[in-house]
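Two proteins follow. First one:
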Amino acid sequence: MPVAETYGSALYEALRARKTIRPLIEQDPSLTIDDAYAISLDLLSRRLKDGERVVGKKIGATSKAVQDMLGVHQPDFGFLTDWMHIEGDIDIDDRALIAPRAEAEIAFILKRSLNGPGVTAADVLAATEWIAPCFEIVDSRIDDWQIAIVDTVADNASCGVFVIGKERLDPARLDLPNLHVAVTKNGEPLSEGYGHAVQGDPAQAVAWLANTLGAHGATLDAGDVILSGSLVPLAPAARGDRFEMTLSDASGPLGTCVANFA
């Protein structure tokens, strides 16, 4: 069986059975980044056969804080499906989450497609309908989060589910690198960060994604939700935890997002 099918099947079974497997790079040290993306696409194809629908993409490991926590040193990307989008409380059992961690991010919703190479941050802003505060809940089907870059890429960039806040903000009116996020956990201050933690500018991170996909003949499409990467370190989450993020600029608060684990 080809490598992509072998490990795509293993990750799919782990996802559905809510279990973890040994790091792929331990099972086969010869695996490359290209192999990992092929595995990710195989995993996605199995989810689509179950009726899930792609609604966007996510960028992972964009900030130094997250790279240091996970021991990876380059960005990656994965796919978002409608099954991953949570509008209310996050039911850990219903979404088969294993070891979830919360990331405070900025979500971009596109009104026009972006086709790399050559996409700039300015192109991203022109193609964006709105941005919003967002929590991505990452999760790993790899034992104890012992991931190398190959493992997280293959595992759909360690994506679990995501929640988008209600505010709809015009990015052209905002200084994205200097947007501030403050995160609380169960009412207590947890972390804070700025937009420039994500490759210097969240729009630049989206441009990186468009250009990376373009090299493989793929695009970011109108209507896509793009999660641009965490502004703060990942925080472990468990049933009963409540995370809240507030996105602000110099004028004051712009919007909030809540991740409530049931």
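Second one, unrelated to the first:
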Amino acid sequence: MIKLYDFKSSPNCQRVKVVLAEKNLPYEIVPIDLRKQEQKTPEYLKLNPDGKVPVLVDDGTVLYESCIINEYLNEKYPNPPLMPADLGKRAKARILTDYGLAHLDGPYQKLRVEVTKDPKEQNQQVIDAAKSDLRKLLRRLEDELGDQPYLVGDFSLADADLLPRFTRLEGFGVLPDPSLPRLGKYLQRMKERPSVKAVL
């Protein structure tokens, strides 16, 4: 039985749970309470020396880093496949995942920090600037979507990996936005998938 060391609201855990659900893989959740610093205990650090969630244990294989876990799950449990057969499209899926996580991270983190402050301490200028920067960066994903239902055509790891970022951008008021109509419809389509509904 696969074990997932999980903190329910962690975006990194959520992207792994979407892939587990897409592949209909049974697994056991081992709750890790980040608020109690359970990820810093000596026992947990033996599993993940970075002291972060998630950790996935499968047949004695111990893995961390959520996008790498998802690559492993897709390779070990190939049905249904969550990466295109075409190598060029497969590389594109990885490029878009990197773009959505790494390139958006600067303004995303600024916004996340600001909106989680007490409302009286929030700096509206910082919030507005971060939202504006994010919408400019999201144009690339808007264009990449084109008329496809998902980022590289069929649902893939790119969609699973980026889902938690998109749902948080929705929560922060960045999405939906009239300037990004395709992304708005795409996010609604994503939220209708049973695997996503189960996680959200």
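SUMMARY FIELD: The longest strand covers residues 2-6. The two ends are 23 Å apart (CA to CA).
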